[in-house]
Amino acid sequence: MRKLLGSFRKVIFAGEVLPHPERREFLRASASLIWAAMAVLGAAAVGASFFRSPRRERYMGQVRVADLSELQEIPQLFQAEFEETAGWRQVRKRLMVYARRTSDGEVSLLSPVCSHLSCLVRWNEDGREFHCPCHNGRFSIEGRPLSGPPRGPLRRPTFEIRREAIYLKVSE
Amino acid sequence: MSPAPPQPIPRQESSATCSIFPTQTPERDLPLHRLLILILFLLTLQVLTGGLLLLSYVPAAAEASASLHDLARTSLVGGLLYSFHRHGISLLVVATGIYLLTLLLRGVVRKRHRLLWRTAVALPALVLAFGFTGALLPWDLDGYWTALVGIEIVESVPLVGSLLAHALRGDAELSAFTLTRFFSLHVFFLPLLLFALVFLHLLAVRRNGFSQTDADDKASRSADWHPAATFQASVLCLLTLAFLLILSALAPAHPGFEADPALVSVDPRPAWYFLPLFELLHLPFGGPFLLAVVIPALILAFLLLLPEIRLSSDPRRDRTVAAGICIATLFAAGASTAYSLLFRPPAIGEQVSVTPEQLPPIPSGNAANQSGRSLFVSEWCINCHQVAELGGRLGPPMTDPVELLARDRIRLILLDPKQLNPLSTMPSYRNLREDDIEALIEYVAFLQTLREE
C-alpha cells in the first residue's frame, strides 16, 4: 500500500514515468481500486433502493369501531376504516378488533392478529376459543395462548369509550 | 454394436472449446447429462412462459389478480401459459432435487467437484426463492398469506431480521409496495442470479465432468455428448412437455380468490414444496426462528460444506453416511408433506365435509341446475353459509333467510361483498366465469325459497 502510494505520488505530482515492473503493479492496483470503488457505490445504490420505503401519512386520530350496545358476551369482529397516504397512493386501511362484554360488564378488546406469525385468528363458538388457521394456535377468550405454537397472548389494543361507543387510536 | 476400446478423453480440446457443452463424455455420466439437459429445458420453459405472461400481467395490487384471471379465462393459450408456469416450478423442484441426490449418490461432491456440487445445491434453493416470490404475484389469498408468513419468519431473525423483512416488503407492512418488490425480485434479480448460477454450473461440468478422477474417465468408454446425451434428453424433454400439457388440462392452475388482508375466514396453505416448513411451524416449541430459519439454514450449510466435512475416516463410508442423512431428511420432508396434504386441506370458511349430494335436490322445472349445486360446495359457499343445518356458520344461512334477496342483489354480493356491507368478510367472486356466477345465483335464489320444517 505504501509502495502504491509512493508510485501514485511519483506519477501524479512528479510526472515521472515509472519503470516497467513498478508500472505494471501500479496499473494492476489502480484497476483493482477502481473496481472496488465501483462495487462500493453499486452496493450503496442497491442498499438505498432496497431499504427505501414509502413516506406514510396516516390519520392519527381515533376511529370508532363499535357501539357499546352492539357488544355481546361472545367476541365479535368489528372493523373500522381510516385513510392513509403511502407514497403517492391513497388507501383505505382497516382496523380489526374482537370486542365483547365480559360477565361483569367490562369491555374487552383483542387484536385478531396471531402472536405467532400474524395470521388472523377466528372465534370458534363450539370450542369457545380463538383458532389460528395457519399453524393451529389456540387462544382462550381472554387471549391467553392455550395450545399450538403461539407463546404470547393476543394483543390488547388501547381504547376509549366516548358517547356509548368504542374508539381505537390509529397507531404507527 | 461392437465394443470399441476405451479411449482417453481429451481434457483440453483445442478447437471445440467455444462450446459450453462437452464434446465427449464417459458413458457412465450420460444419465447425469440427460438430467441436466432436462433441468435446463425446464428453466428455459419457465423463462419463456414467464416472459409471455409478462405481456398480459399487470403488477399492481388492484389489477394483478384480474389481469391473470382474464388471461386464463379468455384465451386457451393464456390459460396454458399460466398453468405451465405454475406447474413448471413444481417439476423444477423435483428435477433439481433428483439431480442433487444423484450427484450425491454418485459421489460427485469432493475435491475437484466443489463448484459443481455447490452450484447444484444452490439451484433448488433458488427455485424455491422463485416459488416464494412468484406466489404473491397473482395477489390471491394463498399467495398473500404465504408472503406474509414468510416475511414474518424473516423478521424473527435476531438483529437483522426486521431490516431484511423491511427490504423484502418495501414498506412497514405487507402492501401493494410488497407486490412491486416481489415482482422485481421474481422477474429481474432472481433470474440474474439464476443465469450466473447456471453459467458457473455448466462451466464446472464442462471443465471436470462428473467423474471422480481422470482414471475413472479412462475406465469408462466415452461417447459423443451429442447425440448420446442429447437424443434421450430430447425424448425426456418431450415427455415432460406432454406431462405438463396433460397436467394443465386436468388440473389447470388459476389465481385463487383475490387477496384481502381483512379476511378472517381463510385457511391459507403454501405451495406443496413449502409444506415441510409449514408442518415444522406447527410444532408447539422452538419458535419460528429455530424451526423455519435455523433448520433450513443448517441443511443448506451441511450440503454446501459437504465437500469439506469428514463424516468418517473412510471416504467411501463418508458418502454412504452423507447419502443416508440426506435420504432420511428427504423422507421426513416427504412424510410431513403427505401429512399436510391429507390432514390439513385448504379451506375458506370453516372446515366442513359436505358433498353436493347432501344439499337439497333441485325440483324439476326450477331454473337452478346441478352445476350451481356443486359450485356451492366447490367454491366454498357451504363453508360459511348453512343450508338446512349443514355447513359453516361464519356467514348468514342460505335457507330460511331474514329477507329474500333478488337475483341482481345476490349478484352484487357475489361480485363485491364489501359494496353492500363494508365490514363483510366474504371473498369476492368477481373472478368466477360468468356462467358459473349465473348458476350460483340461481341456486342461491332456489335455496332461499326453502323453508325449515
What does this structure look like?
The complex is a heterodimer of chains A (172) and B (453). Chain A contains two helices and eleven strands. Chain A has helices at residues 2-12, 20-50, and strands at residues 56-58, 62-67, 76-86, 89-101, 107-110, 122-124, 129-131, 138-139, 145-147, 159-162, 165-169. Chain A has a four-stranded antiparallel sheet, with no helix packed on it. In chain A, strands 6-7-8-9 form a four-stranded antiparallel sheet, with no helix packed on it. A three-stranded antiparallel sheet of chain A has the order 2-11-10, with no helix packed on it. Chain A is elongated. Chain B has 453 residues and is mainly α. Chain B has a two-stranded antiparallel sheet. In chain B, strands 3-4 form a two-stranded antiparallel sheet. In chain B, helix 3 crosses helix 9 (225-250). The interface between A and B is large, with 34 and 37 residues.
Summarize the structure.
The complex is a heterodimer of chains A (172) and B (453). Chain A is 24% helix and 33% strand. By secondary structure, chain A is α+β, with helices and mostly antiparallel strands.
What characteristic shape of chain A results from the CA principal axes? Answer: elongated
Low-confidence stretches of chain B: 13-17
Low-confidence stretches of chain A: none
Structural class of chain B: mainly alpha
**Number of DSSP helical runs of chain B:** 16
Largest sheet of chain B: 2 strands, antiparallel
Helix and strand element order of chain B: EHHHHHHHHEHEHHHEHHHH
State the helix count of chain A.
2
Largest interface comes to: A-B, 34 and 37 residues
Counting DSSP E segments of at least 2 residues, the number of strands of chain A comes to 11
Q: What is the overall pLDDT average of chain A?
A: 89
Q: How confident is the prediction overall: mean pLDDT of chain B?
A: 89
Oligomerization status of the protein chains: heterodimer
Give the strand order of the largest sheet of chain A, numbering strands 1, 2, ... along the chain. Answer: 1-3-4-5
